[in-house]
Specification:
394 residues, alpha+beta, 7-stranded antiparallel beta sheet, 12 helices, 33% helix
Length: 394
């Protein structure tokens, strides 16, 4: 029996290795159109590969999988984040869990994952054909099973060759925001640990660290929001208002903090005391933005209206205009792909073509930053490997 895997990325290798472990007699070939396999794994997580998450802080999968959370809930009963953790440890990759619940190789080097995959592929005699592009499933008619693990496609044309399968229009996800505000950009390098970002007029919001860059904003609070709002932002041409809560507190809570400062430090200059642990440069920027010439005054000189304005700008009333995605190609994830209605939810086998399977980002499943997309790759790839192995043994 022979299986062809189209795509030499994370899901493709994980599927191939697990299939061989379940069914050693199966002949498995990976077809990769580029010259290099596992290229995305190599650069992920800043070269460290955030390979999964502890899920300890996940109350509901819909908050980490904006698309596909129901299917992931079902499939993770068969191969969960704990199973993934154990799999890598068993195969010689020691892992560590950070305070933010992201899981990385203990080596802090993505090559630990890559070397593991390549070594296991060699050990199981998995054939790897690089620079081999598959344009039609007919090219693989002599294989008993086909698994498509090509990853996300920036354009629908990239997966139209899959014939007859319904495709959810692909758009970028997990990107940073370009904001044309020179005063803000001058604060590049500034980090706020607990920010909340929102798209006004929607229920879309995200929280976490926010990084100010020379082009606008980045960090988990932005990347998560870009995932939640991927389709919305695409539809409005990546031009949208953005609201930021710099403190993650409600306005009345911030107001209480400001009022206490006016009592304790009434003679101090406004810009010399940063409330709520804000970086001093950001506080100065916000005071000047909010109060103009009054920014050079003392705390004790603030009237009630000015205190309310400051509380508002710190707690969600600070507005910006998204001018586009970051001015470089930094999208690692695609929202969209083969519609989940086109596959069997238990096996991920195509409903249109028997013995054709899909795994990884080619499916309309995508997660926020934090290792969730790799977990989707492991879970869906394992599901397909199990389904093929079971079919082979029947």
């Amino acid at each position: 029996m022979r299986t062809a895997i189209i795509g030499g990325g994370a899901a493709g290798f994980f599927l191939a290795i697990n299939l061989k472990e379940m069914c050693e007699q199966m002949e498995v070939t990976i077809f990769e159109k580029s010259r290099k396999v596992l290229a995305k794994v190599e650069i992920s997580g800043g070269g460290r590969c955030n390979c999964t998450n502890s899920f300890a802080e996940v109350r509901d999968l819909q908050y980490v999988y904006p698309r596909g959370h129901r299917l992931m809930k079902r499939l993770m009963k068969g191969f969960s984040h704990r199973d993934a953790y154990d799999w890598f440890e068993k195969h010689g990759v020691r892992l560590t869990t950070q305070e933010d619940q992201c899981v990385f190789p203990m080596s802090q080097d993505s090559h630990s994952i890559i070397n593991c995959f390549l070594a296991e592929a060699r050990r199981h005699n998995v054939e790897i054909r690089i620079e081999t592009k598959i344009d039609s499933l007919d090219e693989l008619s002599d294989y008993d099973f086909i698994a498509v693990t090509t990853g996300g496609s920036p354009k629908a044309e990239g997966i139209r060759w899959l014939e007859r399968h319904e495709v959810e229009s692909p758009v970028p996800s997990l990107f940073t925001f370009q904001i044309d505000d020179k005063a803000l950009q001058a604060l590049m390098g500034t980090v706020v640990e607990n920010a909340v970002t929102m798209i006004p007029g929607t229920k879309m919001r995200a929280e976490g660290p926010l990084l100010i860059t020379h082009w606008g904003m980045s960090g988990p609070a932005i990347l998560k929001l870009s995932s939640y709002a991927a389709r919305h932002l695409a539809e409005c041409g990546y031009k949208s208002p953005l609201a930021v809560n710099w403190t993650s507190l409600h306005d009345n809570e911030v107001l209480s903090v400001l009022e206490e400062i006016t009592i304790r430090h009434s003679q101090k200059q406004l810009q010399t005391i940063s409330p709520c642990g804000l970086p001093s440069r950001l506080w100065s920027y916000l005071v000047e933005k909010c109060l103009g010439e009054r920014a050079n005054g003392r705390w004790g000189s603030l009237n009630k209206k000015e205190l309310n304005r400051l509380a508002n700008i710190l707690s969600g009333g600070d507005m910006y205009q998204i001018a586009g995605r970051a001015p470089f190609k930094d999208e690692f994830v695609t929202c969209g792909g083969v519609s989940l209605s086109s596959v069997n939810p238990a096996t991920l086998e195509s409903k249109e073509k028997p013995h054709l399977y899909f795994a990884g980002e080619v499916l309309d499943i995508d997660g926020i930053t934090g290792g969730f997309n790799f977990q989707a790759a492991w879970t869906t790839a394992y599901t397909v490997a199990q389904a093929i192995a079971k079919s082979c043994q029947m």
